[in-house]
Design a protein that fits this description.
Strand order of the largest sheet: 1-2
Radius of gyration: 15 Å
Shape: globular
Number of helices: 6
CATH superfamily: EF-hand
Strand content: 5-15%
Number of domains: 1
Distance between the termini: 17 Å
CATH architecture: Orthogonal Bundle
Largest sheet: 2 strands, parallel
Number of strands: 4
CATH topology: Recoverin, domain 1
Length: about 140
């Protein structure tokens, strides 16, 4: 897969799922405490793009709607995995709060990050690519 087509923002007001403008979080940032106030604002703005009901918690439907707006086609299985990866015990069951959301993006280790920052449209595509890479690595391909 090639580089994603999303643009990166420097200002939180520019963040937009519909326009495919995402926060620009440096690769060296992996923890919330490493975020600048501008980066934190951008992530909170991105969270609000998903949180259309202003409930401060994202449901499976909120995440589906946001990803569809962004041009992705998440399966229910993918969405359930995102919820599982991003859910913190402080959030209501089967939801993602701001902190869990920001951690998922910041750490770059979540399916949500993969959907937003790479060209993958489905979890199946991502898994196929991972399998190819692991087979190629093992067999020197």
């Amino acid at each position: 897969m090639g580089c994603c087509t999303s643009q990166y923002s420097r200002l939180s007001e520019e963040i937009s799922l519909a326009d495919r403008i995402l926060p620009n979080i440096p690769p060296t940032t992996s923890k919330l405490r490493d975020l600048t106030s501008s980066e934190r604002s951008q992530l909170l703005r991105l969270f609000s793009e998903f949180d259309t009901t202003s409930s401060s918690h994202l449901t499976l439907e909120d995440i589906r709607s946001g990803l569809v707006t962004f041009g992705k086609s998440p399966s229910t299985r993918s969405l359930q995995r995102i919820i599982k990866q991003c859910h913190l015990s402080s959030a209501p069951k089967d939801t993602v709060d701001e902190k869990g959301f920001m951690l998922a993006i910041c750490s770059r280790r979540s399916l949500l990050w993969e959907f937003l920052y790479t060209d993958y449209d489905t979890i199946e595509e991502l898994e196929k690519e991972s399998m190819k890479k692991s087979k190629g690595w093992r067999f020197g391909v």
